[in-house]
């Protein structure tokens, strides 16, 4: 039986340079939050908590699951849209 990491390794991601499909509107807003839930809940690990309290986002490898969209919807600090056609996650099952 395969581990989830092995299955995720088979997926590919086509980066749309200069056009990320997720954007943190105000990075300073995240420093005010005591819990940075996106850094824990994102299955792809796209969010990182920095030592200064800020949250950085790298969308390369995003699974487009929408978890961050749900977690951050109350704050309204996240801009999330589907990637353009031909870009984003390319699932490979096998």
- Biggest sheet layout: 2 strands, antiparallel
- Number-wise, the strands total 6
**Principal-axis shape:** globular
- CATH level 1 name of the domain at 20-84: Alpha Beta
The helix tally amounts to: 4
Distance, first to last CA? 12 Å
Radius of gyration (CA) equals 14 Å
CATH topology value of the domain at 20-84: Alpha-Beta Plaits
Percent strand: 15-25%
Please name the CATH architecture of the domain at 20-84: 2-Layer Sandwich
Oligomerization state: single chain
The unreliable regions are none
- Secondary-structure-derived class: alpha+beta
Strand order of the largest sheet: 1-6
How do the SSEs run, as a string of H and E?
Answer: HEEHHEEHEE
Organism: Azotobacter vinelandii
Family: To ferredoxins from P.putida and C.tartarivorum, ferredoxin I from A.vinelandii, ferredoxin II from D.desulfuricans.
Keywords: Electron transport, Iron, Iron-sulfur, Metal-binding, Nitrogen fixation, Repeat, Transport
GO biological process, one term: nitrogen fixation
Commentary on this structure:
This is Ferredoxin-like protein. Could be a 3Fe-4S cluster-containing protein. GO terms for molecular function: iron ion binding; iron-sulfur cluster binding. The protein is an alpha+beta fold and 94 residues long. The chain has four helices and six strands; from the N terminus they run H-E-E-H-H-E-E-H-E-E. The radius of gyration is 14 Å and the shape is globular.
């Amino acid at each position: 039986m395969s581990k989830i990491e092995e299955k995720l390794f088979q997926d590919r991601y086509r980066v749309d340079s200069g056009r990320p499909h997720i954007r943190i509107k105000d990075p300073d807003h995240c420093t005010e939050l005591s819990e940075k839930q996106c850094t824990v809940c994102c299955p792809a690990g796209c969010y990182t908590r920095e030592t200064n309290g800020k949250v950085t986002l790298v969308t390369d490898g995003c699974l487009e699951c929408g978890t961050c969209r749900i977690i951050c919807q109350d704050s309204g600090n996240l801009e999330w849209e589907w990637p353009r056609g031909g870009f984003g996650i390319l699932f490979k099952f096998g």
